[in-house]
Amino acid sequence: MTLVTRFAPSPTGLLHMGHAFSALTAWTAARTAGGRFLLRIEDTDFTRCRSEYTEAVFEDLAWLGLDWETPVRHQSEHRVDYDRALETLRDQGLLYRCFRTRKERLALAGVAPHADDPTDPAAFTGGPHAPDEEARRLEAGEAFAWRLSLDRARAQLGDLSRLGWSEEGVDPGTHSARPGALGDMVMGRKDIGAGYVIASVIDDAAQGITHVIRGEDLIPMTSIQRVLQALLQLPTPIYRHHPLLLDETGKRFAKRDGAVTLAQIRAGGTSPADLRARLGFPD
Ligand code: GLU
Predict the structure, then answer these.
(1) For residues 39 and 204, what is the distance between their CA atoms, to the nearest angstrom?
(2) What is the CATH architecture assignment of 4-279?
(3) pLDDT for 213-224, tens place per residue?
(4) Where in this chain does the record put each Glutamyl/glutaminyl-tRNA synthetase class Ib catalytic domain (predicted)?
(5) What is the Cα–Cα distance from 12 to 49, expressed in whole angstroms?
(6) CB-ligand 1 contact for 222 (6 Å cutoff)
């Protein structure tokens, strides 16, 4: 079997060291195995993605010394496929509309809306609205998300922990899906259609990805993706999650914390070979 892997950034900001590490890990794995390396632009969310960031992805990765197959798949060009999958799930009764605002979700989760933590409660388990409330909010034209009901997925598939995947990265072995940790996740939104989770499983199948090589922060997401693969009858690739690269304070690199970007590193005069060596990929 030829190893086929991908680097799949979302162009919502400039790439930083963490991205470079992830891209180099996947690219090196492909080269070492005599396999294929694909680049995929995960730009389904047009409210957050920008074309200049997509351009910067190409520039940064080429500067880093990577090459990839063309044409590059841009998810924004395949919305129909993802929306069709969203519809398939909806037709099976697996999705429900969720009109709750962040404030409402926090209140349901018993978290004070003024809490310092700006993030959503990690797992939404509030379930569907009462039918009359749903009808009223739909009628009022309120924004909503389509959430995947894990209860309904369980009713269709049985015990979800029987779904497994083969992990070759951190904690190797067979992993069982434990989607409960992320609750009833958003699969799409009224305004933007199907989102990242659906798009990524569709594309991994469409592109014949045999090995998903990415950061270990996405291990919880893998459980949901595994459930989606079962519901949409898609193959399950092998996963190879790598440890996250940490900065000198021991924190993971993150766009939202203003991590130093590859563009800044490049402008500072670092050579690609130096950066590759710093990341553990000496020539
Ligand atoms: N687009 C995702 C991100 O930038 C990566 C998804 C994946 O590798 O499966 O976090």
Answers:
(1) 11
(2) 3-Layer(aba) Sandwich (3.40)
(3) 999 999 999 999
(4) 3-271
(5) 5
(6) no
